[in-house]
Predict the 3D structure of the following.
Amino acid sequence: MSKQIHLNAFSMNTIGHQSSGMWRHPRDRSAQYNTAEYWIDIAKILEAGLFDGLFLADVLGVYDVYGGDVSEALRTASQIPVNDPALIVPLMTAATKNLGFGLTATLSYEPPFTFARRISTLDQLTNGRLGWNIVTGYLNSAAKGLGLDNQPKHDTRYEIAGEYMEVVYKLWETSWEEGAVQRDAARGLFSDPSRVHKIRHDGQYFQLDAVHLCEPSPQRTPVLYQAGASTKGRAFAAGHAECVFIAGPSKQVIKPAVADIRACVRAAGRTTGSPLVFTLMTVITGRTDAEAEAKFAEYKRYISHSGALTLMSGWTGIDFSTYALDDKLQQIRNDAIHSAVDAFTVSDPDRVWTIREIAEFAGIGGTGAIIVGGPQRVADELQGWIQDTDIDGFNLAYVVAPETFSDFVEHVVPELQRRGVYKTSYAPGTLREKLFGAGPLLDETHPGGRHRLGRRELAA
Amino acid sequence: MSKQIHLNAFSMNTIGHQSSGMWRHPRDRSAQYNTAEYWIDIAKILEAGLFDGLFLADVLGVYDVYGGDVSEALRTASQIPVNDPALIVPLMTAATKNLGFGLTATLSYEPPFTFARRISTLDQLTNGRLGWNIVTGYLNSAAKGLGLDNQPKHDTRYEIAGEYMEVVYKLWETSWEEGAVQRDAARGLFSDPSRVHKIRHDGQYFQLDAVHLCEPSPQRTPVLYQAGASTKGRAFAAGHAECVFIAGPSKQVIKPAVADIRACVRAAGRTTGSPLVFTLMTVITGRTDAEAEAKFAEYKRYISHSGALTLMSGWTGIDFSTYALDDKLQQIRNDAIHSAVDAFTVSDPDRVWTIREIAEFAGIGGTGAIIVGGPQRVADELQGWIQDTDIDGFNLAYVVAPETFSDFVEHVVPELQRRGVYKTSYAPGTLREKLFGAGPLLDETHPGGRHRLGRRELAA
C-alpha cells in the first residue's frame, strides 16, 4: 500500500487566521469565529472528509511589531480579536465522532496542575480525540499581559517547558495507576486509594504536592504536537512530540527540516514510528484547474498587504512597515536575517522577491506553499511533496473559511482515495490509535510513557 | 403579579456532587459526568423547565480533612475526580437557546489576562448567557496543587480578589470601547484602533500592560455570582455580586442572612434591584406526596455516611472521622463551632442531632433544606420560603441525576406556573436581561459598570 497522507485542517479561534483581509470576502465566514455554529459546521465538513484533525493555533498576545503598535493588527483583524481555543473543542466534539483536535496551549503562563485538569477533561469529553500542541510563547506582548516585563529568554523557556512536561506527565501518567478507578457500586468503591498517588514535585520552576484531580482519560497524555523550528525547539520536539508541524514555502526548505527532525528523534532513543511530520500547505481547488485558478485570482483581490506584513512582522521581529512594498527582500536580509524570511530566497535563489510579493504570498494562508488546481493537479502535487520531502501529511491553511476546507473535501479527497493514498474510513479508537495504529497510551520509549511504567515497576 | 421564583440547578463536573454515595443508585447517571451526553441531556431538561440557569460548583483541591487524607473522598467519589467546569458549558450551549450558566472559577490561581479571555469567549459562544461565581478558594489542598504551602489567609484572599476584579473589569469594560468593532468590509476596517485601549495596571498583586484579546461579549462582564458567607465575603458580595448564593438547613438561618446581604448592598451604594439571593434546596417530588416520600426513603438507602462527612469535614475543617456516628452534635460544637455545623442547632434549638443524623441530612443534597412531596406540597413550601425569608429563588441540588431535575420539571414547574409564580416562557436577551429585565451590561451603580462609564467620560 502506498504511504497514506495525513491531513489536519489548520485554524485558530480568530478571524482570517493566516489570510489577513480575507474576512472581507463575501463568502468568508471566519468573522463568525465567536459563534457555536461556525465551528460545528467546520467540524462536520472535516469529518466528512476524514481529516485526522483540526489543528488550532493560538497566541496570548498581539502583533505589535509592525508599526510599533497593535493598530494595524486591529484594523486588519490580524489575529486580534483572538478567543480561547479550548472552549470550541467541546462544541465540535458533540457534532463529530472521529475528528481529532490539536489544541495549542502555551504552557509558560498556566500552572501545570490546572492545565492538566483542563486537558484530562477534554480528553475524556472527546473520548480520547485530543492532541496538545506544546507552545512556550513567542510574543513579548503576551508576557506583558501576564505581568512580566518581557518573556523569558528563548533557551530558558525550553528549560521551563521541560520541567513543565515532567510535572504534567506525572499527573497524567503516574498519579492514578491502572485499576485505580473501580466504579464498583456493589462494594461502594469508586476509586481505590492505594492506587492513587500524590505527586510531589519540588523543582526549579514548579512545586506540587497533590493528586491529579481527574481520573485517567482515554489517552492519559494527549497526542503531543510541537512546532519548534529552532535548535532548542527541535531538541524539545525530539524528546516529546509525536507530531511535528513545520512550515516553509518550498520543498527545498522542508526536506532538510524533516531529515533533521527524524535524526533528532532517533538520537533521543525513541524507536517507534513517530513523529508524524506535517507541513503547512494552502490548497485552492475546484472541479478543474481553470476553476481553481479563477478562484485564486479572485481571492487575491482580498489580500491585505498590511495585514499579511503585520503577521510576518510578529513572526520575524522585523518591522515591515519601515519598508516600501516595492523594496527588495535582499535589503531586509541584509538588515535582519530570519528563517521565515530567508526561506523565500532558499526556495528560489534566482528570484528577487519584493515586500509586496512576500505579502501576497504569505497573505494566502501564511508561509506554506500554495497549490492551485483541480483534483488531479493537487493530488499530483501533494504526492510529490510526500515523496520528495519525506513528510507524512499537511496542515491545510484556509484562505476563505470554510470554503477552502469544503472544496478540498469535495474535490481532492475522492481523488486521493482513488489513488489509494488516503483512508476511506476512520480507524477505530483514540486519536493516538488512529494516527499510529498503536496506543491509546504513550509507548515505553517516550518520556511520558516511562513515567507511567516507572510507577508500575514501583508497585511490583 | 406575585413575586416570581428564580431557579438554578446546582451541579458540578463530578460524581454525586453533594449527595455522596448516590452514584450507586441504579438510576443515577452522575458517574457519566465525563461524557458529553450527560451534560447535554441535563441542559435540555433544565431548559424544558425554563430554569434560569445551571449553577456549576467547582473545587481545585480534594477533601482531605476527614481522616487526614484523601482516601475516603476517593473511595466514596466525594468531589474527586472533579473535572474542569468551563469545558462543559460549550456542550450545553449548542443544545439550548436560553439556559444560563453560572460557572464557578477560583480567581486565586489564574492570571486575570487569560481568565478574562476565557470568560469573554464563553459569553460570546453562549450569546451572553454566562454567569461567573467568584470564588477565592477554600481548600488548602488546592493551594498545594498550585505550588503554595498554604492558601493565603482568608482576609488577604479578599484583598487579592478585589484587585483581581478591578483588572478584569478594566479588560472587559474599558479596553474595547463601544464602537471599537466596526466589521466594515467595505473600508477594510475590522476594529478601530483609536477605540481599543491598553490596560495598564500596576497593582500590589497584578501587573498588566496589554489590550484585552477579545472583542466585547454581549454582557462584557458576565452576571456575577458570589457565595461568600463570612463578613469579608459578604462585603465583597455586596460590592460585586448580582446574584448571591447561600445555604442553610432552615428559614431561621436563611432569613437573617438575606436581610444582611440586602443591607450590605444598599450600604455599598448599589441602587438597582440586585442582588438576587438564591438558597440551596433539595426537592424530592413525584405525582403525589406518597410517591415522593417513597422515593425519599429509597434514596436514603444509598447515602454514604462517610462520604457526606468527608464533604462536611472539608467545608468545616472538623475531622468528623474522630467522632462516632452516634456522638451528639453538642460535643462537636464545644470543640469547634463552625457556621455550617452551628446552623443545625440554630434551626432547631430543641433538637439533639447525632453525627449520623447530620450525615443523613447533608448526604441528601448538602446542607440546604429538604422538601419532600407532591406538586402541591412542594409549591406551598417553596412559596413559604420566598415569603418568610425574602429570598428570590433556589439553587436546586440533586440527589439522583438527572432524575431530581426532571422530576421537578415534570411535577413542580407546572404547579408553580398555575399559581402565577413562575415564568411560562423565557424573557428575551442575555442572562442579565432575563434575570433583571435590564442590561445587557452592568449598570452605573456597579463598580464594573463604573469602569466602562469612566472610559466613556474620558472620551467625551
About this structure: Chain A has a mean pLDDT of 91. The domain at 6-459 of chain A is CATH 3.20.20.30 (TIM Barrel).
